[in-house]
Write a structure and sequence with these properties.
about 425 residues; alpha+beta; Rossmann fold; Dna Ligase, domain 1; D-amino Acid Aminotransferase, Chain A, domain 1; 13-stranded mixed beta sheet; four-stranded antiparallel beta sheet
């Protein structure tokens, strides 16, 4: 089996790591990849959105499967692109078609879907320039804080939570006025849900599904969950409050009706569903869908899967997931993210990275790294993800933090309080 993974972050390194262990793998490629994926696969200098170049590579290298990491090519219709060409009829693609990808690509579409299939979520109003007065009236019915979400993809920056009513009105004007570009042509105004966030994941073949391990990630840059939101400063799996009873509620009220809705809407959906959840007093609500794996959750979740992951993906592509029994490790997994100083604001690149070779008891996934004249250097805001196992969260945390002390680059930063709220 020749596999091409699209993407360049820690998620893609974790996918490559898990697939590289498969007994049925022949050749593994990552486009464009990073310094970490280069150690276990062949990096290919192709953009994830250059569908023509990807298709040429697929033909020239007899690729059997494409695993799409990020959301952009899915929302842009990469699956539809390949499915429209008969020469790719036998190509397996892990990712939904353009219609399925709207579950992430449009928050208004996702909300309509959830309400249609009776999936618990916050009440909402979708604002646009033509119903602005109605939107203001809806805001007035809510109690603060006020949640505003740009409808389209905004690189994880399109959600604003504001405590002041007049400030919320001003921000609504800003978003509709182009603060997030075309992603803000519509704005979803949501009721605020007060609870604890977590995420769970499913792999579906469009009919059946398997549930992957759950995780809790940490978005704020500062300790005690302060400061700006980031792409994620770490993740922990399993989540202590995500017990069997809660998991059963999530499956019955959220996962099953979501997969049923995917079938009824005739989405060509073979891939991952990310359920961003809020636990409100033991009742789960969907905050958002993603149509791919999360980052950094992937780096914590995938190492816990003991099954041959490529074989599982093949089962999904062949619509045989109902026959799969996923083997999950009972150990805890903790991922901490090492970031460049200044992130998520302005940060410097091209800083030399040292010490990874000293890490013995953890997995180091690369997120924003590159090789420059033979030297490993920083190339992004989130640079490395350190994942460790332990009999419990405390043991896994100790290993990851011990590994972090071995690694160095100028102005390196990481949160030192991850998981303490769960111990």
């Amino acid at each position: 089996m020749n596999v091409l993974i699209l993407g360049s972050g820690g998620r893609e390194h974790a996918l490559a790591y898990q697939i590289s262990k498969s007994s049925v793998l022949s050749n593994l490629y990552v486009a464009p990849g990073n310094a970490g994926t280069a150690q276990i696969a062949e990096n290919v200098k192709i953009s994830v959105n250059d569908f023509n170049a990807i298709s040429e590579f697929v033909k020239q290298n007899s690729i059997n499967m494409i695993v799409v990491g990020p959301e952009d090519p899915l929302v842009s219709g990469i699956v539809d692109y390949f499915r429209a060409k008969p020469e790719f009829d036998n190509l397996y693609i892990i990712g939904p078609d353009k219609l399925g990808a709207k579950l992430e690509g449009s928050k208004d579409f996702a909300k309509e879907f959830m309400f249609k299939y009776d999936i618990p979520t916050a009440s909402y109003f979708c604002a646009n320039p033509s119903n602005y007065d109605e939107a203001i009236n809806y805001l007035a019915t809510l109690t603060p804080p006020y949640v505003l979400k740009a409808d389209g993809l905004a690189a994880g920056k399109g959600v604003v939570i504001i405590n002041d009513y007049s400030e919320a009105i001003s921000e609504l004007k800003n978003i509709l006025g182009g603060k997030f570009g075309s992603a803000g042509n519509k704005v979803v105004i949501e009721e605020y849900l007060d609870g604890i966030e977590c995420s769970t994941f499913a792999l579906t073949d469009g009919e059946s599904y398997v549930i992957l391990p759950e995780a809790k990630d940490y978005k704020r840059i500062g300790e005690n969950n302060t400061g700006l939101n980031t792409g994620g400063m770490g993740a922990i799996s399993p989540v202590p409050f995500y017990d069997r009873d809660f998991a059963n509620i999530v499956e019955e009220r959220i996962i099953k009706p979501t997969i049923e809705g995917i079938k009824k809407e005739k989405m060509n959906y073979c891939g991952f569903v990310f359920f961003g959840l809020m636990n409100v007093g033991g009742n789960p609500y969907v905050i958002e869908y993603n149509v791919r794996m999360g980052d950094p959750e992937t780096e914590a979740i995938l190492p816990r899967i003991n099954s041959d992951f490529l074989k599982v993906l093949i089962s999904a592509a062949e619509k045989k997931l109902k026959n799969v029994n996923l083997e999950i490790s009972t150990e805890a997994s903790v991922t901490i993210i090492l970031v460049s100083g200044g992130y998520p604001g302005n940060y410097e690149k091209n800083k030399k990275i040292t010490g990874i070779d000293k890490v013995k008891d953890s997995i180091v996934f690369h997120s924003g790294s590159a090789i420059n004249d033979g030297t490993l250097v920083t190339a992004g805001g989130r640079v490395l993800a350190i994942s460790s196992f332990g009999k419990d969260i405390s043991e896994a945390l100790k290993k990851s933090y011990s590994a972090a002390k071995e690694i160095h680059f100028e102005n390196m930063y990481y949160r030192k309080d991850l998981g303490f709220d769960l111990i």
